[in-house]
Structures are given as structure tokens and as C-alpha cells.
Design a protein that fits this description.
The protein has 749 residues and is α/β, with parallel strands linked by helices. It contains 28 helices and 24 strands. Its cofactor is adenosylcob(III)alamin.
Length: 749
Amino acid sequence: MNDQPVITLDDDTIAQVRQDVQPHWGPLGWVTYKRTYARFLDEEHRTEDWEETVKRVVEGNINLDPRLHDIDPNAVSEDDRKIVDGLQDEAKRLYSLIYGLSATPSGRNLWVSGTDYQRRHGDSLNNCWFVAIRPQPYGKSALVPDYLEAKQPAVSMPFAFMFDQLMKGGGVGFSVTRDNTSRIPAVARTTDLTIVIDGANGSAEESRASGAVDRDEWLAQRKASGTDSARSPFFSTIPDTREGWVLALAAVIDAHFGYFNGDGSSLVLDASDIRPRGARIHGFGGTASGAAPLIEMLRDVNETLNASLGRGLSAVDATDIGNLIGKAVVAGNVRRSAELALGDWDDEGFVTMKQDQTKLYHHRWASNNSVAVSGDPEQYERIADAIRTNGEPGIVDLDLSRHYGRLADGRSETSDAHAEGTNPCGEITLENGEPCNLFEVFPNIAEQQGWDLNEAFSLAARYTKRVTFGSYDWEVSRNVIERNRRIGISISGIQDWFLTRFGHRVVVGTDENGRPRYDQNAVTVMNGLYQAVVDADKRYSAELGCSPSLKHTTVKPSGTVSKLAGVSEGMHFHYAPYLIQRIRFQEDDPLLPALKACGYTIEPDVYTRHTMCVEFPVRAANADAKDFASAGSVSAREQLATQAFLQTYWADNAVSCTVTFRDEEKPSLPAVLSQYAGSIKSTSMLPYTGSGFKQAPKEPISKAQYEEILARISGDAQEVFARMNGNTDLKDLELVNQTDCAGGACPVR
């Protein structure tokens, strides 16, 4: 098998695209890109430039085409040459599409595609995953505890899967519904967990504060008592690797369920080999957190299981363990934890678990919580009472997800019969172990740049199809990906496009029964674009000799990626026609002097130490259009109607939407939400807050204020930065609290 890239983009191709195409940077676009997706080039002491990032991303993706694996670049047959030439041409078109910001792959792909890490771990190309919390076998996976047979179901497996994917930078949705947690056996025993650490470890003091004990003192005490625990089968050293951390968690969980060759009542783990806080992480990038977050998490998980002695884990117990895992990952500073817990709509303990303020602030903040419903309006009404008080839970209609693609195509018993949940943002229905696989097109920009949208969406379909041929670490994922080949082609900047293309919003009124009426031109266009994606997938699947994708289209919430191009996020309405967008930087970031020189307002962040807050004036596309609406003015009813439109005519997966509601709408939420029972697969709702606190991420302003601020800004930040710094940069800098979607559920890296 050939491991070297066959398809490459030469300097002449890149130079030609740069001459012909101007990237459509939004007001925050280049700055956001530079601190989020531009990888550091050690040998040149700088971060990538945009043309280099796009080259890396496209070459990393195009060479996933499985037909290239057996081609010898030095002896190419005529048939192989046709394949290579076709993919070479496709790479050029794909490069032009992404470089101009008419479309982009997911944030994960922008960060990882084309790296050695991606080639070792295909999982890293996927933003998010889903796993059912029930005993499962590890199978032929990269991680299998040595006390288990590969085919042996174990309670630890879904939690190990979650921990592994979170540490690779993905988000994880997980199901704790009764049909899953009821399969977990009763906790058979309590476990006395001891974690030791060498006093010479750079994080020893912090680790002892988290509950570890000094290894030399512990060994001395054991020796004095005549016990050589270092030779005990329950004594294990935690390797300084991602795999080592995952297996340590697995051991702590499984000790309670009789999987060891013994009683599992005592477990000793040695954390001395874990690198100290601040040490460099090779491969994924960033710096280490030290052992303390892992130690705290292992001890808290152990306490949760000890407290469950003699009974199975409840949805709350299982969610707590998932949240403790997420908390440990966030403490690593490099990664962002994204979790969605899916429980039963009538599980009162699960629905109210965030009302425990102590546990909420300790770890229960780590997931967004949703409930599985069946489309019964009464369920929606009951849930709405909780939503208008707490903004949670979200809603996932599993029956609709399993039996419908696009609603316009009607019910099918085999549409997605094995789907069990969603990713954390809710736009992709997923089976156990399955990832979301995303690409988004900005149709408003694509049309401005002269693209035929059918071609743009076809290139997107082929890009995501290749991602399904990555090298995946877990058997459960390999099996479901090969079977489903699920892709998720999304549209972002939808509200911008509707106003530009059709002259008004897509909901044009209601009928005599209060049902929404839609612009019929929009219906026709969406049907055509959906068919373009399906047809492109069928053609490419035939070329590759694999099955067509189970589902194809979605609307992701977007976030950081939409900031690059300066478009509205997914299907969401702009926050306001004019606003101040605040972005937070580390205080030593060399971008800050360049931004100051350009006239941007910069001040210390009032919430986070060693952080600076920069204000960017933003004007929404079509801000002055007669039919423009923002999140602060559009009704919750119209937002749900728009989501239903996209679920009907575009998305065969799901549509991610966080519906905002104003105080005066709260009394009507039960009726509004129940009206769309059976029309939306997943949704969440939050009150619209405007800018009610200091240094809000988004602050609505008037047009006059916008123009006043804009007048103070001069010069191009990209050019000023290059001039002031000689195009050199610092390593390991990123924006503070940045996420890859509008609702904050998906991590960037």
C-alpha cells in the first residue's frame, strides 16, 4: 500500500487561485482563522498562512480516496492515470472553493486534515460522536484492557470510548435512557482506590491536593506492614499517553463489576510517569495538564460507583460519570469538552439534575442535556415548562429520526432504523459508535464568487465521502461507518442567502389553520440542491465500489467557521443587525499590538486573568433590508417554522437550532413547541439575553454607533501583523473560550 500522497497541489496552481480568487473574510475572519486553525510551523517559527492551510486540508482529504492506496506513483497504469487526473482536477476545484470561503470542511478538518496525526487517527477528522451507555465489547480496537477478552461486554467500554474521543478533540453525545442503563449490572463491590505519585514529578504538589499520596511514603508504609503491593495484580502504572489515561479509567470502573481475576476491592494506580503541567504535547499539539485532573476524575468516578453498591447505575449516575470525564478533559486547557446527555422525557431525576447547584458547579455543567420524545404534543408541553425556567432540556424525537429522512420524502421503516441519538449539537442522527461527518457551503458567498451551487454541493459530498475511509481506532465505529457511510452536508448563512436570493425570509405567512406558508421558489431550489448532493454521492459511491450514504444533508449550528466568512450561523438569525463582537486573546498574543495599531478597542478581560478582550464592529449582511430580522426580533414560532422548512426540504439528517425566545413569549412556549411536534427532529431553546452583562460576547448597537467605531479602524490586520512581526509568531496561542458552533456545544479542536 502506498502511504505517500499521490495528489498534490503545485505552486503554480495555488498562485493562479490566489490571483483569481479573493477570500471572503468576515470582520473577524482572518483573526479567528489565525488563532484557531493555522498550525504552527516549527522550522519557520510561524503559523500557517491561509493558502497553506487550505493546501494541507485538501491534500489530506483527496488522498483518502481508497483507489489511490495501491497506486505506485512511479508506475501508473492508464486506468490509474484517469483516476489520478480526475482527482487532481477535483483537488484544484476544491482548493478554489475553500480558499475563497465559498465553503469549508468542518473545523476539525481545518485543524487536523493533512497532518501525521490524522493519518494515524482517522477519528480526529470527525467533530463529534455518539455512544450508548450500556455494557459493550471493546472488540478489535486500539484500546482493550488486558483483563478483558475483546468480545467480552464491559461496563467501562462506552465511558472509555467517550474519554478517548474527547481527548482527541471530538465531542460526544451519549444515551442514558432506560433501555440502555437498565442493561448495566448492579455494582458488585466497593473499591478502595489509591493513586500514588513520585515526589519528583513536577505536578506532585497539585496532585496530592487532588487526592494522590506520595509514592515513597506509601511504599514505605506497605513495606512496614509486610505487604509488597507493587507486585499485586491490582497495582498499575499509568502510562503518559492518551491510551494510558483511558485504560486507567476503565480499570477504576471495571473493578466494581467483577471483571478482574480477583475481588477488585483494592486498586492502586501510579501517576508518576505523567508529564507535568505545561509540558509539550506532541502530535495533537498544546501543553499538558499534569496528573491532577486525571486523579480528581478517577477518585470522583470511584466515589460515584461506590455510592451505587448493590444497584445498577441510574441515568443521573451515568451522566455524572460522563460529566466528570468531560471536566477532566477541559482541565487539560488544550481541548474543549462537548457532551450531550440524552435521557427519558419522564425521568424526573434526569430532567432536574442540574437543579443541584453544588454538583452543577462541580461537574454537571459539562453536558447539555436533552430528552428523547416520540412526537406526542403533550410531551412537548410538559418539557416546555422546564425550558422556560431553565433553558433545558433540549428535545430529540427518536421516532422521527429513525423513520424519516427529509420529511418531504415520507416515512420509511428502514430510513435510519438503528439511530439512537445525536451529536452534541443535534444536527446528525447517529447509531452507537458513529461520528458526524460535516462540510458546510455558504451559498450566498458561493453565488457571489460565481459558483454553480450544484457543483459546490457535489464537491462537498465527495469530500465527506472520503472521510469515511479514514483509519478509525474503534471497531464499533469502523463497522457502523462502513455500513452507513453517513455524511452531513450543511448550509450556513441561510438567512443571508434567503434575503439575497429570494428577497424575503422563507416563511411568508400562515394558512387558515396557523400552519406556516413557505416561499415556493425556495422549496424548488432546496429540492434541487438536495438532489445534487444525493446524485453526487451515488456517482462517487459507484466509482469507489461502496454503498451510497445512508443520509446526506444537515444544518449544523456553525460558529467559528461561520466567523471566517462573516455569515449568519447555520439557520440562525443574526444576533442583531449591528453589533460589537468580542473576542478574547491570551495577553501575550502578538496579534494584539497589530489590532491596536489598526484602531480596535482592547481592554483587560474582566472575567479571566491574563486575557485581553478585543471589540470588533460587525454589520449583518442585509442589515438594512426591509425583511431583515434578528434573534432579538424574530418570534420563536417563526424560528421553529424555519427549522421545519429545512427539515422538510433539505436535511435528511437533522437541523440544529437553538430557538431564542423573549420574556413575553414564555406563556405561549408550550403551545408553540407542541405545534411542531412531528416536524423537527431535535431542538433546544434559550431566552434571548441581549447584552445584559459587562463585555458580553455580542452586544447589539445602533447603525450610528457601528459607523462611529468603524471610522476609528484603519489598515489591514493581516498586513500590519506581518509587518510588525516579520511574519513570525508564537506557539500554542488560541482564542479563549472559542467553540465550533453557535451554541457552544462543539469544540474547535
